User: Fold these one by one.
Assistant:
Number 1:
Amino acid sequence: MTDLQDAPAQDGGLGFQDVPTVKPTGESRLRTIDGVVVHRPVHHHDHRGTLFEVFNGDPALWSTPVVWCYQTSVRPRQLKGWARHEVKTDRYCLTSGDLMLLLHDDRAGSPTRGLTQRVMLSPEGDRQVVIPVGVWHMIVNLGDQDAQVINFPTEPYDHDHPDRILLPWDTDELPVNVKDYLPKF
């Protein structure tokens, strides 16, 4: 079961029906994949510039030690994924740009198996996300500039045996139509 509750539904050819994403209280209506943590770090802003906390020891994000760190970029209107890991958990931190992160839970025994979750990462909103072992993920740059992400995976990179299973973005192996989540121009 792919959960497209945050993807616009077609209304018979005249356009797309908007879907409510928050309750009147501001709380999200969208389901989340078991183990995924989305975080909006403390952000300080004044006349001199801005500062946000990349690492603050919050156990929701940092329950395992930092053992490896790298930065990756995604060019404008490009995507990376699908990928999943069998050993490590990814801990992404957006440093610049705007990204859409698609997650799909295909883990046997997971209470959210079959759920697809969309997470929007931006400097003005959520910037950090924890992606559990076994969850498929894809990042899409929706902006006009390179997007930069720092990853703090829970395991160092193994150059001889990379912990990364890949699928093409338009694979039939996952019940996710990525085009349903892309902007309709």
Number 2:
Amino acid sequence: MQHLKDLIQRYLKGNASPEEVEALHEWYDSFDDSEVPLPVEPGEDRRMLEQRLLNRLKPVMQPPKVKRIPFWRYAAAAALLALVAVAGKIGWQHRYPSPQKNIMADNTAATDKPPANKKAMLTLADGSTITLDDAANGALGKQGGANIIKKEKGQLAYQAADANGAVVYNTLTVPRGGQYQLVLPDGTNVWLNSATSLRYPTSFRGAERKVILQGQAYFEIAANATQPFKVQANEMEVVVLGTRFDMMAYADEPTINATLVDGKIKVQNKILRPGQQAVLALSGHELTVRDADVNKIMAWKNGLFVFNNMDLPTILREIARWYDVEIVYQSAPGKELYGGGISRNLNLSAVLHVLEENGTNHFKTDGNKVVVLP
């Protein structure tokens, strides 16, 4: 990261060698699903640095090739990049929406929506609730045999305290426009996406560890061969045999999906290997297993929207959850499919602008609504 910072500063001052300029352009053309903030000097405004870098690089950019530069070599693509291409065009296209520019309707500047932040509601066994974004860091109380600790903004953990304590259930609810991380009492890590809830016991006892999911979450399961981990999401149950996986079960999506990143899971009588996805259709209840684009599935956790031949309604459902907006159609969505990615750290107007530039629909914001126009 320090090497990249030094390279950017030398380039902006006109002191970079030809080899360094070439390296910087290769980094700029690169894209990786793991996102790294743009390095800035102490006291330097990141947005101003982004714009200065864009102004210098943009005029000499060549049409990018579809390629991946090794992540370790140039520290990956920075958060300023918004990358979207319409399926059917060759390669990926760079787009550079300025955060300061009013690129939507006249009222956009006043109503623009920031990206999701770290907020959640914890419901205790007695039905009382704690708003975690308002709670101070540290101990929040005790539930059953576990202490509840708010570790820092966006992170909640359970720590075993009393092996004989009662087993009670808590629910962590992340609203639209939010995200949160949870450490369960067995050490399992869970990342919760927007519009998601997870119900879980405050201690795991008996023959299994079981939680109930609504929405989308990524799990890194603590190993325990004698006590299998299970995730129930509506009509799909995933039996975890030591693994990392993503599960998506939103009420407004047509399927429930479980995607295996590493290890092994079982869905019904099917064993998945890494890179596979179990898909349960809510109409007809048919379960299929297929190869998955893991990078696309994991993009939300890594700070990106990634589209892989996705239609506009599917994209807008994801945007609605992330920015906590309602989508209103005054025109039918175009038939184009999208591929590429956009940073989730951009404001709503910038994301919609990128979609406008690459599709046939236009958008305007009206309070908490995004209106789809011809």
